[in-house]
Amino acid sequence: MTATVRAPAQSTGQVPGPVRATLLVVEGLWTWYRRHWRSTLVSSVLQPLLYLVAMGVGLGTFVDAGGRGARTVPELAGASYLQYIAPALLVAAALQNAAGEATYPVLSGFKWQKNYWAVTATPITPHQLAHGSLLWIAIRVAVSGAAYLLVAALLGAVAGPGALLALPVAVLTAMAFAAPLAAFAATTRSGGEGFNVIIRFVVLPMTLFAGTFFPVEQLPALVRPLAWVTPLWHGTELARGLSLTGVPPLAALGHVGYLVVWLAVGVVVTRWRFRVRLTT
Amino acid sequence: MIEDTALVRARGLVKRFGDFEAVRGIDVEVRRGEAFGFLGPNGAGKSSTMRMIACVSPRSAGELRVLGEDPDRHGPRIRARLGVVPQQDNLDNELTVRQNLHVYGRYFGLPRARVRAKAEELLEFAQLTDRADDEVEPLSGGMKRRLTIARSLVNDPELLLLDEPTTGLDPQARHLLWDRLFRLKQSGVTLLVTTHYMDEAEQLCDRLVVMDGGRVVAEGSPAELIRSHATREVLELRFAPGGQDAAVPLARELADRVEVLPDRLLLYTGDGEAALAAVQRRGVQPVATLVRRSTLEDVFLHLTGRSLVD
């Protein structure tokens, strides 16, 4: 038995810089992902593709051949319905996945697995842990989104190269929603019942009514503002515009600005909630 | 730079949570190479003290230096040189045993090759080599605990903080763990242990403080504490519940001090056998008797009037 641990005159531990520390948190999460990615494939890539096929190909046949005749609905701008919803589903799926990643896994880090306390017992600070956790979600939805786009292109659902720009838009939209949600998860003490409420009564209606499948203008005038305040609508408008027709610069700036505000507030509050909870 | 021989130095250290004062002004000094203990019941303020020393909980008042530096100003720098074993295991249950060590080592800025080599060394130390590629979730409590300790050593810490290291383990797992900690101590690692088990404190600690209600009520080596706060031997007389009251006056005659517990009398005396003989001569008939050496449990009972484990 040669199990020895030598007397340490000097510890080997170092303090990683803030960027490196953030990337080390991502590396830790990547180690988990490398082991468990298969179980995440269905919800992150397959599900939006099923929607795309069912709605875009199935329902789209009726839309494109519908009452007013194919290619005459102004919003379609000459594209097929499949191409109309493809960028929107990219954004919606990114947002849904990011919402999932920002809730239970974050709460688990604090409450069930408690591994956040393990991380912040090292030189890594709560702020760096928050940054790394959010960055990891962004990377996840970016990779899933890219996989989705690839298959969508093979299905003929991508109208042109502008769809590539829809990917960063999807990531921004997803994080604009997920960052405040992570702050909420970091504040949650209960078993996360509130998350289901948000998924059912915010994320799902948002996906159905904030412009994914049909223009918001089809909604009664009274309800439209509800759609306009959602990050999803801004992301969808932007992604769809970039994919199909192009977006006026001022409108694009407005959409991006609105999403960036959500993201910035979310990041600041997440940092704060991580620090408060991990350093009492 | 003048080398400070104290790895931890606290003066008037206070921790408040709102109106509640968990730590009420304690003075502590931990020297390089020793095993130092915080002994006390649940709620004594041990874990709060430990978290302040681990630089994850800012102090409310008082002075604190860990490895010569101020946790408020240099938390990450101090934590880089600490090992922490928390009260509750917080391993990554969905990673393998080995991956837990790899990932954790990286947080200390260690190169991958260094982490890989260190992990193999620690797996052997924790006797987990044959479980290295298993996920953590199904491991026994003792194995998880050993992995948590192995993980805390990944950066070759100068000071190892262990919060209730064997709570919740069965006796065999505890002894195995103590053996590992003893090896660490032998190799010169400075240990800081909180425990509410007097046998753990006696086994591991060169020096300890007894804590109660957020204060330090005594300090010294286990032997010193027993010498100054208890007699050499204890005679325990066990009675049917309530039956002990009648024997109290006699017990007080025979012993230096008597503690009355719900089902027992404890007679503190230099010679337990002699006291037992005297008790029997006077016709007292306890259900059971025991003569034993005084322990830290007796010290705690004497200092606070209460048992360590309720």
Automatic annotation (TrEMBL), chain A:
The keyword Membrane applies. Residues 39-277 form the ABC transmembrane type-2 domain. It is found in: Cell membrane; Membrane. It is a multi-pass membrane protein. It comes from Streptoalloteichus hindustanus. PROSITE patterns: ABC_TM2. It holds the Pfam family ABC2_membrane. This is Transport permease protein. InterPro entries: ABC2_TM, ABC2_TM_bact-type, ABC_2_transport, Nod_factor_ABC_transporter. GO terms for cellular component: ATP-binding cassette (ABC) transporter complex. The chain crosses the membrane at residues 45-63, 134-159, 165-185, 197-216, 250-269.
TrEMBL record, chain B:
The lineage of its organism: Bacteria, Bacillati, Actinomycetota, Actinomycetes, Pseudonocardiales. Gene3D superfamilies: P-loop containing nucleotide triphosphate hydrolases. It comes from the Bacteria. Keywords: Antibiotic resistance, ATP-binding, Cell membrane, Membrane, Nucleotide-binding, Translocase, Transport. GO terms for biological process: response to antibiotic. Its main location: membrane. Residues 8-238 form the ABC transporter domain. It comes from Streptoalloteichus hindustanus. This is Lipooligosaccharide transport system ATP-binding protein.
